[in-house]
Fold:
Amino acid sequence: MLVLGLCLGLVGMLQAQPRQAPTLRAVRLTGSLELDGHVEEAVWQQAPAATEFWQREPHDGQPATERTEVRVLYDDAALYVAFVCYDREPDRILRRLARRDRVVPADWVGVLIDSYRDRKTAFAFLVNAAGTKADFLILNDGNDEDFNWDALWEARVAMRPDGWSAEFRIPFTALRFSQADTLR
Structure:
């Protein structure tokens, strides 16, 4: 079972864990993409996959027990993130519906975006295997979460015989960027 694999790994980075977060190279999306959770379009295969993840719970710092692949695309309007979460026991995947922003016990994936590049704040986007979405701000050096923040973004999930998968579309308008990064 994958429980917040990528998301918690990146939270760990924000909390000064000794490991480095995986680096992903995003590939420009030139055509269209059907956001259906299946991660089957050929364009996803053009993006290199991050596969080296570690646990936060239940065994902090240990290698992930299940294989996960994460790929990133972008276009002029949005960032696209795909997760393929393999599971040796797919019938044990926790698929629990809940209201938005209720992080209930379930299998979750997510991404944190530190668009200010300050390692103190981040925008968090999560979805569980049932399709429940959560988004929040991480503040105060990773010690506080603000679930009152809501963004307009999309996520779809799909079950697979060998696990589950998810696709995110996060519009750039949902993020904030440092003024130092803007071109004049």
Notes: The first strand starts at residue 27 and ends at 28. DSSP finds two helices and nine strands in the chain. Residues 10 and 157 are 21 Å apart (CA to CA). The chain has a mean pLDDT of 82.
